[in-house]
Design a protein that fits this description.
single chain, about 325 residues, alpha/beta, Metallo-beta-lactamase, Chain A, 2 domains, 8-stranded mixed β-sheet, 7-stranded mixed β-sheet, 19 strands, about 25% strand
Length: about 325
């Protein structure tokens, strides 16, 4: 995993992601009480040249400007639950998009109540907006596919919290097989047949000989998977869903000496987040949703690393590659 700060200063510009297969931009990594260094929850996931926002806490659009993050490919926002630190930035972001003359529709996937809550605000503050805001309600208590296109699938992960809440599993779909150019040339395969071979077909010569597909190809690149699990108390029910993901974000609101408070508020400790990562055999763990009481988050990082070594802090304005 590569971790580096965002130093761009451009104004919501559109840029290439540099060919990376998966990027996770931490927009806000704090919990309910904002601090100087940690805004409330928000992230941007980039997969297959698409952008997806997860949660939109207060100050999200400020962080976007500070990071110089592009938004021209942002079409879908996923809201984990209806606590203010995960949604209070949404209305401001929508109105700003209107002032920037966005024309592409914006799709919001959330608990059904969000549409009822936001619609009066949209009518009052965003009347005449040049784009449509389209709500896609889902049941946080059930695991279901809520987004599906040719290359990416998003599935909900029911979580354990004080209000209905879910996480999200982003999965890249398996791509085409890789061509062995030398074998294509050796057998004189017509260009018109290459696509079918990449999709797994055998090749039949003019003489009727069947040449197996694996002569011409190698297996496709394994698809990448990213799981977002916040807010939630410790729950082993999610393990089977997130098993083996390339990158797991799991809330770690408290250190272990606040385990009782974590249980009362239905949050997790850093050690609990790491235990989930270990039991699920994930490749990398990012912890976040930090309580404002922790000016120095190394106590959280160290407690997580005691259980799962490959753990990173989800600090604001950092980007992770996976």
């Amino acid at each position: 995993m590569v971790l580096y700060p965002q130093n761009k200063t451009s104004d919501f510009q559109d840029e290439s992601s540099g060919g990376q297969r998966g990027l996770l931009h931490i927009i806000g990594s704090g919990s309910a009480l904002p601090t100087k260094n940690n805004f409330p929850s928000s992230q941007m996931v980039e997969m297959r040249n698409k952008q997806f926002m997860i949660d939109c806490g207060e100050g999200t659009q400020i962080r976007l400007r500070q990071m110089g993050l592009k938004t021209n490919r942002l079409g879908h926002i996923f809201i984990s639950h209806l606590h203010g630190d995960h949604v209070f930035g949404l209305m401001g972001l929508i109105t700003t998009f209107g002032m920037l003359h966005r024309t592409a529709d914006l799709h919001i996937h959330a608990h059904p109540d969000l549409e009822a809550l936001l619609t009066p605000h949209l009518r009052y503050f965003a009347d005449g907006s040049p784009f449509q805001v389209i709500f896609h309600p889902f049941n946080p208590a059930e695991s279901e596919t809520i987004y599906d296109d040719r290359s990416v699938r998003v599935t909900t992960i029911p979580l354990k919290h004080r209000v209905p809440a879910c996480g999200f599993l982003f999965e890249e779909k398996t791509g085409e097989r890789h061509i062995k150019r030398d074998m294509i040339d050796f057998y004189g395969v017509p260009v018109s047949r290459i696509l079918k071979i990449k999709q797994g077909d055998d090749f039949v010569t003019d003489e009727g000989e069947i040449i197996p597909n694996d002569i011409f190809t190698t297996p496709p690149t394994p698809p990448i998977r990213y799981a977002y699990c916040s807010d939630t108390a410790y729950s082993e029910k999610i393990i089977s869903v997130i098993e083996g993901v390339d990158c797991l974000y799991h809330e770690a609101t408290f250190a272990e000496d606040e385990a009782l408070r974590a249980r009362q508020t239905m949050h997790s400790t850093a050690r609990q987040a790491a235990t989930i990562a270990s039991k699920a055999n994930v490749k990398k763990l990012i912890i976040g949703h930090f309580s404002a009481r922790y000016a120095n988050k190394n106590v959280l990082l160290n407690q997580a690393k005691d259980i799962f070594e490959n753990t990173f802090l989800a600090e604001d304005m950092k980007t992770f590659e996976f």
